[in-house]
Amino acid sequence: MNIAALLPTAMSGETAVEIAAGVLNFLALLALYRAFAPSGSVNARARSHAKRRSELRATLLTPARAARRKKSVTAVRGLLERLKLTHGEEVKKASELLAQGGWRAPDALTIFLGLRLAMPLGLGILVYVMAPGILGHLSSTGRVLVGVLGIVGGGFAPSSFVKNACKKRQHKIQRGLPDALDLFVICSEAGLSLDAAADRVAREIGANAPELADELGLMAIELGFLPNRRDALVNLTKRVDLPSIRGLVNTLSQTERYGTPLAQSLRVLASEFRNTRMMKAEEKAARLPATLTVPMIIFILPPLFVVLIGPAIIQVLASLHK
User: Fold this and answer.
1) Entry pTM
2) What is d(CA 111, CA 70) in angstroms, rounded to the nearest whole number?
3) Confidence band (pLDDT; 50, 70, 90) for 41?
């Protein structure tokens, strides 16, 4: 058998040069496309945003400013320790309140206690000094009363601000919870464990619900590091004081203890949350006519009466003057 007859004929030199030139042109075009085409990778964009965020933080918090801030916080902590204000049940409640508001930095409690200590006196003195310029002439008794009101307002201002921030954060968490539960169901049906599912859900909903993503990510970390997994779930209820979160934690605890199917339980829970959200929306829509009654009477009916009766009144007054 002649093997040489089965082999293809040798290519000519010109054909080989043409093929090599075509391959080189294709590689050059591919390199140009990779160089100038915008990157569509989510991970690349996330790394770019993280790098930009770190650059902005470095710009805003210079080393000198960071040193001054650290020195100020250390001085405030020393003052609070001398006054014995860093221990007790009230401090524990303040720490839990700050955690619910999303402030978990090591110095958050010190700054909050320092503001709660200094703001009454500072706001009282400021109001006492600026009251005559704002309210006009005041007697000494009036200035003292205004200063006392400033002291009372300064005492309630830090706690009121933190509580308001907690309510807003809880509302955002409540709004994003049904979608997060749907993702939980998908992850559990795919075979992921609880901590892996929590971490994946936190990464997926980070753009739409960053507050809920923060809490779920922290829960995933605690599930992996704490010796008792139930402690991680209990900590979630402490950080987010919502009935829906407590229901979610109870469901997850039951699945951990009794081995019930996680996906089925979460699907039922997500359906209940969506029904609850729909009922609240229907309740607000049903209250709308009663809510609009008073604005309609005050702002719509008087102009309507002026438009309808005004010309007749003008004609009557003109005829009387004649």
Assistant:
1) 0.64
2) 11
3) very low
